[in-house]
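#struct-queue
[09:14] JT: dropping the first one here, sequence first, then the structure tokens:
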Amino acid sequence: MISNYYTKTQTYTRTEIDDKLGLKLNASIINDYYTKLYIDDLISNYYTKTQTYTRTEINDKLDLKLNASIINDYYNKLYIDDLISQYYNKTQTYTITEIDDKLALKLNASDINDYYNKLYIDSLISKYYLKTETYNQT
């Protein structure tokens, strides 16, 4: 029966098989290679290029940073905050002009010589009666 046989298109010739096997690796050579699992494990200890910066990228980023040798010319934030806390905020104080304007509205010490203080006036008044407290003799 013919159905028990393959057609030529369904099989390879010896030459075709030898050619295909020539493209394959010999089993004796496989010992010089790593398995995919081993390579994956080995590579897992490394970073990919997307996870790291190139030398140029690092240098560019470092160029934007302050050199450590220059840092001695600067104060740190904690020092500045402490220093600033010892001063008043401008909203808490008056300017010289504001103080002068407010003082101009007050009496000078030399002007007060023509006035009596409250204690003196009270002692003078205590010697007299109010008109409503007395009987008019007219």
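[09:21] JT: and here's the second one, same format:
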Amino acid sequence: MRKIHAVLFTVLMFLTLSFGQAFADDNEMPELAKLAGLGEDSVIVAAVKAENAKGKTMDQIEKINSKWVTAGKKDPFLDKFLKSDCAKHLATLKKSNPALSEAEEIYALDNQGTIVAALKREEQYYWGEEEGFQNAMNGNIHVNDLEIDEDEMEYMIHIFIPVRDGDTVIGALDVGFEAGD
């Protein structure tokens, strides 16, 4: 039950941010500021910019996605996504930010919706067609409806946060929370 409350609190914080409303309790503001700032984190921004600079074609993305989907959990191919400096930084953020401590999934996406860094292997590499990603690329924080993660067989809520380089949206973060015990 505590996990559900943490997820709902986090979702409410993001919704509050999206609609520009303020919290009545000033003690909650520091957590909101930490979450809002994730999309401007210098390590994440640098990693996303570097991936964007590669200018991958859709054919290249499809080939990488095919390799991603068929790779075993310990395939060295995944190391550049799961063991990169950015992936290690995401793990540090999860440990140091109380609002992220309950997150099951955190991954950074480039401007095409491909994974730059992740805490764990996701079912696919390409997320560019996801509504949440597209809304984040339009500068909005997006909270998905409750959905079932078919790999883990658990209910999840995903929050997409724009990654910004100054005023320009260059990618997104997807933070997923398990919605039940």
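[09:30] RK: nice, looked through the second one.
[09:31] RK: The first strand starts at residue 103 and ends at 109.
[09:31] JT: good to know. The mean pLDDT is 81.
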